[in-house]
Design brief:
Largest sheet: 6 strands, mixed
Mean pLDDT: 92
Strand order of the largest sheet: 1-2-3-4-5-6
Strand content: 35-45%
Shape: globular
Helix content: 10-25%
Number of strands: 6
């Protein structure tokens, strides 16, 4: 949960409201006209989290997905991911996006 708070703090100037979430969402927050979910994916939880989130109705919420390692991103199949995050023990947050596939 502390990693989700570190991510939230990166948006502190723009946050209008925040609240706790239900599994697998740790926190929800609103910034101007956008809604965000902060989701934590533990090691070996990629399939579970993908299944749960993909079974929810689609909406316009932006997803910030916290990972334990960068390699987890390739094992996730999620829509509407704004960024993947790695959070250091000291609270530094690094943001990543998956490369777009070209055909």
């Amino acid at each position: 949960m502390i990693a989700a708070v570190w991510v939230l703090l990166d948006f502190k100037e723009a946050v209008v409201y925040h609240t706790s979430g239900e599994f697998p969402v740790k926190l929800h927050f609103f910034s101007k006209n956008e809604a965000y979910e902060i989701i934590y994916v533990g090691l070996e939880q990629e399939i579970l989290i993908s299944h749960v989130l993909n079974s929810l109705p689609a909406d316009d919420t932006n997803r910030l997905v916290i990972l334990e390692s960068e390699q987890q991103a390739s094992r996730l199949s999620l829509d509407r991911v704004t960024a993947y995050c790695l959070v250091s023990p000291g609270g530094t947050v690094n943001y990543y996006q998956k490369a777009k596939e070209t055909r």
